[in-house]
Amino acid sequence: MARKNSDLDDSSTGVIADEIKVKLSRLKSQLKSSKRKKLATVPKSMPKKSTVKKQAEAKKKEDKKQAEAKKKAKKQAEAKKKEAKKQAEAKKKAKKQAEAKKKEDKKKAEEEELAKKKAEEEAKRTYEEELEEQLTEEQITDFQIHKTDMDKLINHVCEIVATYGNNGIHQSDLWKKLKLTSRDGSRLALKLERMGLITREKILLKGRWTYKLIIIKSPIGTDSLSGAPCLVCPVESKCSLDGDISPKTCQFIEDWVLIELKTKKSK
Q: What percent of the chain has pLDDT over 70?
């Protein structure tokens, strides 16, 4: 009996052992299978910790380098912007300077032109113009030549000037005829102009500015009336501007005027 029990215990122990072996075998199979799956999902060469650290440091350095490059690029852009602004201001300044110089040159040219015109005007100035500035109207109209009958001289001057008609006579030639100095002749010409007897025309003669004297009207004197036919005309009482007998158509007057002109020319 005891032996039977012992055999039973040995057989059950064997069964248990077998079961345990089967279970261990299954667990080993499962473990192997699990390892295979893990190996399939995980890369064959996993980086080491030192490699990861180096990569991280390299990435950090690269990021830092890129950040510095961006900062440098930003500074360069700002510098370029400042340079462009500086150049624009320089151009603006240069433009203003050019405009200022242009204005200055224009002003200088105008001043030079004005000075030139003034010099030309000064060159054109005559002794008579200086006299007109120096003398008053009263001094011009009251001009007298010492020991000279001014009425007679004025009539004689007008007679001579009248013979030249609208062409006039150069005043220097007239003073030579009358044996007058330029000083007295110039004052006399101004006096005659103020009296309305002559007009003075400014001309350039032999490189010098002078005047040509042209008669406006001759003064009436007793000498010019001495031979007038009207004083002894037999039909003077019937003479009128609108009548049959008129000074406009009078042959006596025409003959007298022609004789007077011939007499003056011969003088």
A: 81
Q: Look up residue 201 and give its two tokens.
A: 């025309």
Work out whether the CA dihedral 179, 219, 216, 161 comes out positive or negative.
Answer: negative
Q: How far apart are the C-alpha atoms of 182 and 212, rounded to whole Å? A: 14
Q: Identify the H or E element spanning 104.
A: helix 49-124
Strand pairing partners for 205? 208
* Spans of all domains in the chain: 127-218, 220-267
Q: Is 164 helix (H, G, I), strand (E, B) or coil?
A: coil
What is the predicted pLDDT for the residue at 225? 63
If DSSP codes are grouped into helix, strand and coil, which group holds residue 218?
coil
Integer angstrom CA distances of residue 29 from 4, 24, 40, 142: 37, 8, 17, 157
Quote the tokens at residue 213: 């004297």
pLDDT class of 237 with cuts at 50, 70, 90: confident
What does residue 198 show for φ and ψ, rounded to 5 degrees? -135, 165
- For 83-100, write each residue's pLDDT tens digit: 999 999 999 999 999 999
pLDDT tens, position by position, 63-86:
999 999 999 999 999 999 999 999
Q: Is residue 200 scored above 90 in pLDDT?
A: yes
pLDDT at 51: 82
Radius of gyration of the chain measured on its C-alpha atoms:
67
Considering the domain delimited by 127-218, tell me its CATH architecture.
Answer: Orthogonal Bundle (1.10)
Whether 170 has a pLDDT exceeding 90, the answer reads: yes
Instruction: List the Cα angle 25/31/34 in 5-degree steps.
Output: 145
In our burial notation (b when 16+ CB lie closer than 10 A, e otherwise), range 210-223 reads bbbbbbeebeeeee
| Of residues 225, 246, 227, the one with CA closest to residue 235 | 246
